Amino acid sequence: MSLTFDRAKISTNTRHLTFLSPRQLLKAVNPGSGCRVAHDGTPLKNLSRDDALDLLDYLEQMQARGHGIVAWNGLSFDLRWIGRVAGDLRRAGRTALGMYDPMFQFFKIKGFLVGLAAVGKGMGIATSKSMKAADAPSRWCAGDHDAVCKYVQGDARMTVEIVSEIQRRHQIAWITRKGTLSTVPIPRLRTVRECLDDPMPDQSWMSTRIPQEKFVGWLGH
Predict the structure, then answer these.
(1) What is the rounded distance in angstroms from the CA atom of residue 58 to the CA atom of residue 69?
(2) CB of 21 within 8 A of CB of 154?
(3) What is the number of structural domains in the chain?
(4) pTM more than 0.90
């Protein structure tokens, strides 16, 4: 999950939601720090089961208090892997159903995926990615902690800035692979649970169709 900075209040048609960044969530697990550290003070390579369970506890508590949790592709990636590390996919699934995942909402409208960087450019967000997501795990394990932290901090800023713009404009704008600007209306952000009730869009034009199972196959396990 992405991380860092203060809570951003995002308004919907019915209430105000506070989207919590994972940096805050990790600080709840380990106050005063953004990550778990070993006895020598160096960041650990992996999140422990206990820390993952603590993180799920915190997410559940925040949702119960009326806070909103948002992550781009958080349904199929972030909550899924937190649940795997915690050894409790069912619990992670409950949190995932109540979260906001703008990419999943986009998918249920358009039928294909769109990346955070493409949306950031389309929405005119100044923050940009500092490295490829695929490179982050290996660079973290190689000890390049500062660079990876800056990368995930940038992702967090992008996510909150994008969500703010979606709420203000009531649309998602992105740069297509052809380099053109495209948009889709988003009257309001909807939870994963709400989006699941929507019918799948037409994918007959796609050479390789993307099933909804790609996102939700792990729920309930």
Answers:
(1) 11
(2) no
(3) 1
(4) no
